[in-house]
Amino acid sequence: MAGGEGLMARQMVSDDHELYRVIVVRLPQKENPNWQRGLIGPGNPRFVYEGKPFESTYGPYNSIGAARGQLTFRTLDAYGEPARGVVGGRIQKATTTWEDVR
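-> structure tokens emitted (102 positions)
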């Protein structure tokens, strides 16, 4: 399944326990057709990020803190700037609920 839609953890830890996953929205990475080897600088990137955005999923995580840490890791670079090609990200929460079945 592309993007992890419909995937659920194999085992929910306990009743009323919450699980979290991270969704990161990215642009596809493509080779820059005008890239020239040896020229270093912002005017000559090796890759360009363009096209239709897609989602990547990470998790599940047992705590909101772990999910927030992964969201930061996946969306920011080492200098605290938005990572190349990342459009955005969010955290989703899943809970165990029970209902009667007839």
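The chain has one domain: 17-95.
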